[in-house]
Amino acid sequence: xxxxxxxxxxxxAVCDDEGRFQLQTDIKPYRLLVQxxxxxxxxxxxxxxxxxxxxxxxxxxVLGEVVVKAERPIMKxxxxxxxxNPQTLSKAxxxxxxxxxxxxxxxxxxxxxxxxxxxxTGVTPTILINxxxxxxxxxxxxxxxxxxxxxxxxxxxVNYNPPANWNVKGTAINIVxxxxxxxxxxxxxxxxxxxxxxxxxxxxxxxxxxxxxxSADFIYxxxxxxxxxxxxxxxxxxxxxETIDLTSNTKRKGSTPYSHNIYVGLKYNLPSNxxxxxxxxxxxxxxxxxxxxxYNSLLGNTLQSTQNKTYLHNVSLDYMMPKxxxxxxxxxYFNTKQDYTGYVINKHTEYSQxxxxxxxxxxxxxHSAINKSWSxxxxxxxxxxxxxxxxxxxxxxxxxxxxxxxxxxxxxNILNGKLYLxxxxxxxxxxxxxxxxxxxxxxxxxxxxxxxxxxxxxxFQTFRLYPTIG
Length: 470
Description:
By secondary structure, the protein is mainly β. The strands form four sheets. Strands 11, 12, 13, 14, 15, 16, 17, 18, 19, 20, 21, 22, 23 and 24 form a 14-stranded antiparallel sheet that branches. It has a five-stranded mixed sheet with strand order 4-5-9-10-8. The protein has helices at 86-89, 98-104, 138-147, and strands at residues 2-3, 30-36, 39-46, 75-78, 81-84, 108-109, 117-118, 126-129, 153-159, 172-177, 184-195, 199-211, 214-239, 242-270, 274-296, 300-320, 326-344, 347-369, 374-390, 397-414, 419-432, 435-440, 443-451, 454-460. The radius of gyration is 36 Å and the shape is elongated. Helix content is 4%, strand content 60%.
């Protein structure tokens, strides 16, 4: 209550649960202020001793929009490897394919935008898709990821000492693809033009479909155009005190009318995180041409023209079973033929050569947890390769190659997850022609997470030297 004339404070009262209050005063007239945190203040000037109902109006306060911002880390540690998020890699510019993402991945480099290697070592890594290596050559795997849209990539894992169930040696990169959680159908079309002294083109179309437990991917890529390179070499040889100058010039011209790459992937999800997937991939070059013109100050002129045909077909079946077991099978067929004509040291030469490969692979792997920090892995892998190569006018070179491996590993972390350890014991068997050999192949890796941006990694691996095919 206030004095009505000068609004000087006089007395205060608090309402009870039903909104009633009482003030003792002989001031008339008076000014009454009624306040509540959720309502508009009411001012009443009166001389009455009893006031009837006082009604307060709601006070609406509009708060400013709250925006919570968070940044994804560029890299995180998992199972002794480095995991990169594609969204953090593609902030600077538009990356259309999975290969473009790889080129932007820290620790991975590409000087020619055709191949990749690891920074500092120059080693070409093995590329896996969803933790599964392929029987295809490194070139064909790169061709596949060059046609794979970047929005299909969920994670990129870089591991310098990969786990045994990856079935690879040395540095490996695992591209993890996204999984659809709802029904959808989407497509993407890309076109690429490149000029390196000659024009080359790539057309790419992809369609992704998902409905219920079934999903399907289809990718088609078409390459065509020409290539042109030139190399000059100057050499000085010191022979018995005499300096000899050698020069050479080599020009290479290539022409590919059409080269086709097709990928089809089918997947059916089963209960309890099980699934069955079937993939088919091919690379077809019905007609390719190249020409090499070389001049050497010692040997003279060389001219070689080549016509080639290459066909590759690859099909794989993958079954994720209950309790962490995984079974897979894969078949690859490769057929190529090259016809050569030209002059070598001013002498006419003409010959052909071919190669046909049939390759079969099967694997079984399992995984079980000991506790929250430690787990066990185990499995087996078998590969059989049959090759037939040579020249039509000569005896063919035939050989069969067999490789088998069984392994067990343990992995886990201590020191509140800062120190990660993994040890693997593997026994493999290799046979080609008359050569047979058993080998014990242990490996060990240690990763210490000093800070989110700093990791210390150490690894030990065992490699086998394979005999030369004679």
